[in-house]
Design goal:
By secondary structure, the protein is an all-alpha fold. It has one domain. Helix 5 runs antiparallel to helix 6. About 20% of the residues are buried.
């Protein structure tokens, strides 16, 4: 009986959006997409203000963990055997960004480095 209830509950969950071949959602890049490195000079003055605004919307974080952005109680198969290793790396990078922010050490240049690493994980899985 309990197994059937879990199956019914899982059937009500949304499909994960835009998965790459490794089962990682392309949409996760949006955690980092608000910052465009090519506009670094324009953002440099407002970077701290932007971070504070984002932190308020994300309960003290700049970057949400993958499973926070895609809650397992809303989405189907958020973390699977296929994507587990990549998700662990994405979560580690996000944690580092949040720690740098809390320590007051997150600069636009540092954020751009993390943004680039995340993009490589998400988009280079196609090759």
């Amino acid at each position: 009986m309990e197994k059937r209830e879990n199956e019914v509950n899982k059937s009500l969950l949304e499909e994960m959006p835009q998965l790459n071949k490794d089962g990682v959602s392309y949409d996760y890049i949006n955690e980092y997409a608000w910052f465009l490195p090519e506009f670094y000079l324009q953002f440099k003055e407002k970077f701290k203000e932007m971070l504070e605004s984002i932190e308020k919307r994300k309960n003290g974080k700049i970057v949400l963990k993958y499973e926070e952005r895609f809650p397992p109680n809303r989405f189907k198969d958020v973390i699977t055997e296929k994507n587990r290793e990549k998700i662990e790396v994405l979560n580690k990078l996000g944690g580092e960004v949040n720690n740098l922010y809390k320590e007051g050490k997150l600069t636009p240049k540092e954020f751009a480095k993390y943004q680039s690493q995340v993009a490589k994980i998400i988009y280079n899985s196609e090759t």
